[in-house]
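Attaching the record inline, Q. Sequence:
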Amino acid sequence: MNNEIEILHRRLEREKAARRQAEHLLEQKSLELFHANQQLQTVAQEQAASLVLLRETANSLLRSVGAPPMDDDRAGTAALTQVVAELVDDRQRLRRDIDRQMFAINQHTIVSILDLDGVIRYVNDRMCEISGYTREELVGMRDDMLNSTEHSTAFYEEIWETLRNGEAWQGEICRRAKYESLYWVSASIVPVLDTQGNPEQYISICTDITLQKSMQDEIRESRLFLQSMTESLGEGVYALDRYGYCRFINHEAERLLGWSLTELSARQMHEVLNFTDPTGTALHGEQDIVATLLDEQREYRSENDTLTAKDGHSFPVSIALVPLIAESRPIGIVAIFQDITERKRSEDRLREATRRAEEASQAKSEFLANMSHEIRTPMNAIIGMTHLALKQPLGDIARNYLQKVDRAAESLRHLINDILDFSKIEAGKLELDDRPYSTIEVFNGISDMLGVQAEEKGLTLRIELNGTLPEVIRGDPLRLSQILINLCNNAIKFTEQGEVTVSADATPDATDANTGMLCITVADTGIGISHEQRDKLFQTFTQADTTTTRRYGGTGLGLA
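Structure, as predicted:
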């Protein structure tokens, strides 16, 4: 019994000890839980505050991009996380776009940022490249250190006055690089304004136009050169585009036409000038010569056209129109013209004088042609009577006198015949016969007539007729004989020793057996003629030189 009580007592003590231990542990855990709960509450409060701040930040960002803000009911952690993630993605995408744009800007655009005092605070790579300065040298430098002397002080003052008024300025500026070289930029300078509308800083965005300015200078010099050149011509010059509008006119053209470039630039040139062709027909519309020349890409030159000036009077011109071609494509017309009113008057006077001279010459020729019989008749009588007298028994002195008279009369007859025949040709009165005649008789007549004359000078007159020469041909035997006599007379006259050879042959026509070419050659061993004098052979009253005339005589009409 006692043992059982003892056992129960020990068990009870153990249970009490265990209960006390459990109560002690419970007391410790409760304190830990209290502290943990307090920490949890603190964290929860911080998270709630962070959540509110995050929501406000997210809503602010949403409003900045034009999106509606989040409601408090749906602004949970998950929703906020999604919105923030999207905003971060958008920001990164925007940053990439900005980076690409800045890269493009840096390739071609010159960017700098100035403070209110004009001190450079930022430059991009292109600014460093074109100015020759490093970024470290530029940042902190006053912008006016880059000014050139191309502009006046008033020019720069106007720029700063515009910027200080909060307005943007645009224009072209010449700047000076580090090593004194100049470059031109097209600049846009924009003030950055604060909330009060006052400038905080200035952003300058420029484009390099140095090459364009150089080309403009070259074009300007070319235009000045062209202007000077066209003014020195002393002729009117104007240029039209492919539509016929005037794009250039020199002072001489303005003087002749009475129009200025300003007046002509808005009107088609040739309608204003009433440009007419030699027939007096106005060329305009579909007949416009400018359109025709451009289509056909050919030049036009005329001495018979007319232009009408501003005051309405027309005047004759010598004009040349030449298409302007660029890359095989017509782009316009250049015209060079000259007032030829005085020239036309001179031509008219010359024409009238020529007409009168021709009428006088014609009258003279007709008179001589009509008087040929009256002139030849007494001359033939003198020669005939002299020949009859020489056949009579005469003393030596009388015969000598008559022989001199006969030679002088024959010489005079030849001279008169040459002049009268030439006058007939000039007057158109010389008629050619057309009848069959014997070629043998013609050449025998030449031999009989001139053989004695050749023998008297100790010359041989040789007649050589080719076997192809027909016995009978059609033509004028008298004129053929006259031509041969003149040629042979010349040959005998200018040959002192040797021979004169007359040769003839014929070449039949390949298509007509009844026609052909008769070729007659007169050759001699005389003094000949120089190359310089050959062009004068068939000119009237012309011989090789004055010594020939003095020695051999003659009129210079034989060959003519």
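The chain has a mean pLDDT of 79. The first strand starts at residue 109 and ends at 114.

More tomorrow.
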